[in-house]
Amino acid sequence: MKNIILTGERPTGPLHIGHYVGSLKNRVKIQNEGNYDEMYLFAADAQALTDNFEDPKKVKDNVFEVALDNLACGIDPEKVNYFIQSEVSELTELTFYYMNLVTIARLHRNPTVKEEIKLRGFEESIPAGFFTYPVSQTADITAFKANIVPVGDDQLPMIEQAREIVRKFNSIYGETLVEPEAVLPENENERRLVGIDGNAKMSKSLGNCIYLKDSEEEIRKKVFSMYTDPNHIKIEDPGKVEGNVVFTYLDVFCKEDSFEKFLPEYKNLDELKAHYMRGGLGDMKIKRFLNDVLQEELRPIRERRELLAKDPQKIYEILKKGTQKAREKARQTLKEVKEAMMLNYFE
Ligand code: TRP
């Protein structure tokens, strides 16, 4: 069997470091390891419209922003077909056929959709397009016969639903589609990075994000406003490391040489944590350290992003080329799907 990798995101805003550690870093690593036959990445603009249909400009502008973020993080268009979902109309057609294979009750049970419905205040009246987006997501994955889908853990229910639809399709119409598997980042804290306020999720609507495009000064301000331990008032007080955002981030971003470079009086994170818990280590010091670590990681990304943003035409060329390739593949799968469903009258 071929190894085909696919992932994407809704272009509803510039990407933040939660996306970066939860998904972008992983996809760039997979890209560079090269252990695949085809790799696809896409802007899920049609899916973004399911809850932003009143704001098409926001979605359109963010296709560009998110492309900048991905390319700045190291996505290489020579290795990855980067496409725009709405430009591959085969995906919409597949969605229509897959709708038959899923019940309303099953869609209601999808925990991610449930949470999103609550978040958006859709309880009273859910737009049908939004409610059924897991089906469209199944089309995104299966159109390319993707077997590996690198995502953050909020996407697991989507992959599970896709697997069910694939199994049902294959059992009714014959072996046609490939069951996908999710690939998550290894580190627990990376899978869902907490917000700078300590909220379980970093999200634009909560205003607790650090963006990949943030300036040095913006990052610094955000780090120094981070939630730590509210009971750690005086430097001598013993502090809590658990639930302390600065330490959660250090767990994720600290590198082997970070201490040597920025805080040589400690050997490693365990030592720093022990001191904090014992008392005698102030928040300013750990924040200054985290700021150094974060700036080092984000600076090259921001600089590449600024460079790329100067040539929008080039970004659109990349997306256009990726979209053409994606279309070819999706057309072939749609043909197989329709044949399996006996929808081939004129051949
Ligand atoms: N639901 C994903 C998000 O919110 C985007 C997405 C759409 C996706 N289709 C996909 C991700 C297929 C992986 C595979 O970001």
Q: What layout of secondary structure does this protein have?
A:
Elements: E1 4-9, H1 17-33, E2 38-43, H2 45-49, H3 56-72, E3 81-84, H4 90-98, H5 104-109, H6 111-119, H7 128-131, H8 133-142, E4 148-150, H9 156-173, E5 181-183, H10 188-191, H11 216-224, H12 245-253, H13 258-262, H14 269-278, H15 283-309, H16 312-340
Parallel strand pairs: 1-2, 2-3, 4-5
Helix pairs in contact: 3-15, 4-8, 4-16, 8-9, 11-15, 12-15
Tryptophan binds at residues 6-10, 44, 47, 137, 140-141, 149, 151, 155.
First and last CA, distance: 28 Å
Structural class: mainly alpha
Note the total helix count. Answer: 16
Q: Count the E strands.
A: 5
Beta-strand percentage range: 5-15%
Largest sheet, spatial ordering of strands: 1-2-3
CATH superfamily of the largest domain, by name, is HUPs
Q: Please provide the ordered H/E string of secondary-structure elements.
A: EHEHHEHHHHHEHEHHHHHHH
Shape type: elongated
Low-confidence stretches: none
- Distinct small molecules bound, one entry per kind: tryptophan
> What integer is the average pLDDT?
96
How much helix, percentage-wise, in residues? 40-55%
Query: Quick one: biggest sheet?
Result: 3 strands, parallel
Number of domains: 2
CATH class of the largest domain: Alpha Beta
Query: Architecture of the largest domain, CATH level 2?
Result: 3-Layer(aba) Sandwich
Rg computed from alpha carbons, rounded to a whole number of angstroms: 22 Å
Report the CATH topology name of the largest domain.
Answer: Rossmann fold
